[in-house]
Amino acid sequence: MITKFFTKVVVKFNPFGKEAKTARLFLSSIPPTQRVGGTSIQNVILSGNSTEKPVVKVFFKDKSEMEIDPSTVTFKEIGNFFDRHSRKLHLKESIESQ
Q: For the whole model, what pTM was predicted?
């Protein structure tokens, strides 16, 4: 997963729900150097009787944001979802640097 263009990550999940595995894998895929350097990571643990929906929301360097429900997708699908926009930003960056 291309995490280079993430500026902020918000993850909300119930640790005992079916979305927990996907949310935890997503959080663990962000490199430690990026966590310290430039990406703000906010995770919220939801209780079993919470009315909030589980969500993974990513803010990118171009000020756009994308969100997805981790209980309806797998980790691979979540990676592909965010990689589509990251690839666009990578292409734009490589064109501008020439």
A: 0.90
